[in-house]
Write a structure and sequence with these properties.
Helix 1 packs antiparallel against helix 2. The longest helix has 38 residues. 38% of the residues lie in helices and 26% in strands. It has two domains: 65 residues; 49 residues, SH3 type barrels (Roll), CATH 2.30.30. A hairpin with a 2-residue loop joins strand 4 and strand 5. Strands 6-5-4-3-7 form a five-stranded antiparallel sheet. Strands 1-2 form a two-stranded antiparallel sheet. The relative contact order is 0.18. The N terminus is likely disordered. The protein is of the alpha+beta class.
Length: 136
């Protein structure tokens, strides 16, 4: 049975400094910006209640989205480990980065630095290099 290479979102929590053309902002940066705005506002035109509530709502939404992303990253990681475990006992073929093929029975699964590996004999290969799965 032919399958496509398995790839997924990395569960690494290393935030990229830029996403497209927008900087990724976390809650701490938002709070610092809000405090700077409140500290340096024009006393004749203070921040309106509605604007402040809107900003706090945006902060809350951003924090919830960040929590959801963390949870989704954990679910993706668990799913990949479960998939790799389902390959134990099956013969797989892998395309290595150097262009060579590795074929053998999967005897185990390992996770290192948020990357899932399958054990084939004495060799370990990334799950995303699997290109074919054969039955037992």
């Amino acid at each position: 049975m032919q399958v496509q290479s398995v790839t997924g979102a990395s569960s690494s929590r290393n935030a990229q400094p830029l996403q497209g053309n927008r900087a990724v902002l976390d809650g701490d940066v938002f709070m610092k910006m809000l405090m700077a705005q409140l500290t340096h506002q024009n006393p004749l035109e203070p921040l309106k209640d509605a604007e402040m509530m809107s900003q706090f709502t945006q902060l809350s939404s951003a924090q919830e989205l960040q929590s959801m992303r963390t949870l989704l990253d954990q679910m993706v990681s668990a799913n990949r480990v479960g998939y790799a475990a389902s390959l134990i006992g099956k013969t797989v073929r892998l395309n290595r980065e150097d262009g060579t093929l590795l074929e053998g029975v999967v005897t185990g699964v390992a996770v290192e630095k948020n990357k899932v590996y399958v054990q084939i004999g004495s060799e370990k290969a990334p799950l995303d290099q699997v290109v074919e799965i054969k039955g037992k």
